[in-house]
Design a protein that fits this description.
The chain is mostly beta strands and 174 residues long. Helix content is 12%, strand content 50%. The chain contains one helix and eight strands; from the N terminus they run αββββββββ. It has an eight-stranded antiparallel β-sheet, with no helix packed on it. Strand 2 and strand 3 form a beta hairpin. The longest helix is centred in the first third of the chain and has 21 residues. The radius of gyration is 18 Å and the shape is globular. The termini are far apart.
């Protein structure tokens, strides 16, 4: 009975979200700059299952309005012995057409062999800066400072502690 009620609730929620997204009209940006992005954008990708059965999938929901963007990201990864789900919500504020500052929260949950509410998790504060080289290529520098001491480690290894993470990354869209 509980599973049936949960199914009905999820169906209503997805239908409502689909209706809201379908009713949004997007304005054309003034230029091709990402700082002028307005409206919703939803993307996702996944890698093929590797030889050792690792799985890597992600999604991003982006909403932009007047030089400010809000991102909701989700990542699902399985490694040889572990399974993780990581999600973050990040706000980006453009300083000019190409340079932006970002800030938000990040949570990662070790989901293997655990019920979701009892699973160990990691909570962090994300801050950084980015530069849009062009509409298909960007560079970011981020810091993720852990707010909750957790023993789930990184990349599926419980013996590798992860108090903070500093990353330099880029994204190329094609």
């Amino acid at each position: 009975m509980k599973l049936h009620s949960l199914g009905i609730l999820l169906s209503c929620l997805l239908f409502s979200i689909g209706s809201i997204i379908a009713q949004i009209t997007e304005e054309q940006p003034v230029s091709n700059s990402l700082s002028n992005l307005s409206g919703f954008s939803i993307t996702g990708h996944s890698y093929p299952i590797s030889a050792n059965n690792d799985v890597h999938k992600s999604f991003m929901v982006l909403y932009g309005l007047n030089g400010i963007q809000l991102e909701l990201q989700g990542f699902y990864d399985t490694y040889m012995y572990t399974e993780r789900f990581r999600s973050s919500i990040i706000g980006k504020g453009y300083i000019n057409e190409k340079f932006y500052l970002l800030s938000g929260m990040d949570v990662e949950v070790a989901t293997e062999r655990h019920e979701l509410l009892n699973a160990p998790y990691r909570l962090g504060f994300v801050a950084g800066a980015g530069y849009d080289v062009n509409e298909n290529f960007m560079i970011e520098v981020k810091s993720n400072v852990q707010l909750k001491k957790s023993n789930i480690g990184m990349f599926g290894e419980t013996l590798i502690e992860m108090p903070s993470v500093y990353t330099v990354g880029s994204k190329w869209k094609f």
